[in-house]
Design a protein that fits this description.
Elements lengths: L2 H14 L3 H17 L3 H14 L4 H18 L2 H6 L1 H4 L4 H8 L3 E5 L4 E3 L8 E6 L2 E7 L2 E8 L4 E2 L1 H4 L9 E4 L3 E6 L4 H7 L3 H10 L4 H7 L10 E2 L3 E7 L10 E9 L2 E6 L3 H7 L3 E10 L2 E15 L6 E7 L4 H7 L2
Antiparallel strand pairs: 1-8, 2-7, 3-6, 3-8, 4-5, 4-7, 9-11, 10-11, 10-13, 11-12, 12-15, 13-14, 14-15
Helix pairs in contact: 1-2, 2-3, 2-4, 3-4
Length: about 325
């Protein structure tokens, strides 16, 4: 049995005997020991237990948090911190620790595909060493949008719930070391560092998003002709089996193509996060040979726009193209 397990058994003994002061002292010392060994998961679990056993031991609770944060700060990789000093300089010590210890290191060899076009990957990647190519494919032709170097971030479009699927591929141009943060961490950040998500988002905007990169290359990413359209759109979310989920609602149509449509609707950020990539059924009307014809289509929510002072824009991709819309578009 290791030393930590032995000490935890002693703490259990103190608690069962009603020796709360001894238990608090032992827990505090063990937290300090684990933090210095950089076993932060254990140190934080022990601190949670300290708060459970003695919620009024405010001095020990506060001091143990400071110890964990200090040891975390001291353990951050120096080379990584120097590469990302522009980002970390905007963060507090707590936010810095939350971001750094959310990261997983990934390495790839030259030529490896880090993620392919169309993948449902919602991670954010930080380039520490090496280079990678952002590749966009149109009409079977590969176009290099950008060469990523140390200090570059990629993946913000899916990480921040803008799109459900990768709209470009990422390939290692050399041997490369990345740090990856999964989108599921956002719920934790809300609790521990409420401003962190927005600070990272703001930093990401400095390098430009996929749309701005395409514009610089003179590429129109839309494969199908679209037209502006007005009217209401009935929306029913579906579960994985295709059955209705929740109550239907109405959105306002903004544009349409044979492959999909966009409508506006006011959502909370929490709901917007949950429905990205969801299946749905839409009903709407279009003019056909002088008459109004109702169209019913199934599809997925492929993207969500987040304007500052307006409703969200929900982009829907149909499962199948619509012939009547194709005729309306004259294509």
């Amino acid at each position: 049995m290791d030393s930590v397990s032995q000490q935890e058994q002693l703490i259990d003994k103190y608690i069962s005997e009603g020796s709360k002061d001894e238990a608090v002292k032992a827990l505090f010392n063990l937290i300090n020991e684990c933090a210095k060994k950089r076993d932060f998961a254990k140190a934080e679990a022990l601190r949670d237990r300290l708060m459970e056993v003695a919620p009024m031991a405010l001095h020990e609770i506060t001091q143990s948090a400071d110890i964990i944060d200090r040891e975390k700060s001291n353990s951050i990789d120096t080379a990584h911190h120097e590469t990302w000093v522009g980002l970390y300089s905007t963060l507090s010590a707590e936010e810095t620790n939350d971001l750094y210890f959310s990261m997983n290191v990934k390495t790839y060899n030259e030529g490896d595909v880090i993620f392919p076009l169309g993948e449902k990957d919602n991670s954010l990647y930080f380039v520490d060493q090496g280079e990678a190519k952002m590749i966009y494919v149109k009409d079977s032709e590969e176009l290099v949008l950008k060469i990523l170097k140390p200090g570059d971030i990629v993946g913000e479009d899916t990480f921040f719930y803008t799109t459900a699927y990768r709209t470009f591929s990422l390939k290692a141009r050399s041997d490369i070391k990345l740090r990856m943060v999964g989108r599921e961490i956002l719920s934790k950040w809300i609790e521990t560092s409420p401003d962190l998500e927005n600070k990272v988002r703001v930093y990401c905007t400095k390098s430009g998003d996929i749309n701005s990169l395409l514009e610089k290359k003179g590429v129109d990413r839309r494969l199908n002709k679209r037209i502006k359209i007005t009217g209401k759109c009935g929306v029913q979310l579906l579960n994985s089996a295709g059955s209705p989920m929740g109550k239907p609602f109405l959105g306002l149509l903004t544009d349409i193509s044979e492959q999909g449509l966009a409508f506006s609707f006011k959502l909370s950020s929490e709901i917007a996060h949950k429905i990205l990539g969801a299946k749905l059924q839409v009903r709407f009307k279009i003019p056909v040979e002088g008459l109004s014809k109702e169209i019913e289509q199934h599809g997925i929510i492929g993207g969500i726009g987040y304007p500052v002072l307006a409703d969200h824009t929900i982009h829907v991709r149909f499962d199948q193209p619509v012939l009547d819309i194709k005729k309306l578009l004259g294509v």
